[in-house]
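Onboarding guide, step 5: your first structure request.
Type a short instruction followed by the sequence, for example:

Predict the 3D structure of this protein.
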Amino acid sequence: MRCFFQPTKCSNLRISRKRLSPPCSYSLNGINVEVVISEKDLGIVIANDTSWKDHIVMIVAKANRMLGFLKRNCAGIVDSTALLSLYCLLVCSHFCFCSQLWARQSIMSNLLLVENIQRRATHFILRNSNLLYKVRQIKLKLLPLNYWSEYLDLVFFFKCLHGHIDLTREFSYYFFFSKGQHVPCFIRAAFKD
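The system replies with structure tokens like these:
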């Protein structure tokens, strides 16, 4: 079975930290592939300078829309646990998607954009209470979003360490794996006494 590419649907994204990378042009079936500075793939915006600002702006915009939706349509709900469940389901899910990829590499000012949404959401859930943000978080049993992303990183690492994610298939060209083992040698070596 042959795989045919549509040149008009393909794009050329060159990822580099250099200020000026040498231009390369590619063509498929005699048609030049468009050169782009950022590309959205599987819901993640990847930029050519490896910054995640565009992606964070996109997820903050999505989360703002969902929080506005909740404020408009759930104004009559007085139960804070129901509002908290809706917030976690509809808004936080945008922050958690692939956070292992973008959250750790982001600068603090970008992560504060994300945290401000949770700040406004806790204010809405507790019905405009005058409590401090940290007190609202404790009352609602919410972690700060940077702690939550670190927790997701640890869960991902645990799954990789114990073979719940088969890294041999995805990264067989990049890492050396022991025969019959699902855990890369460099991870196992780090935990030997």
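Each response can be followed by summary notes, for example: The first helix runs from residue 53 to 73.
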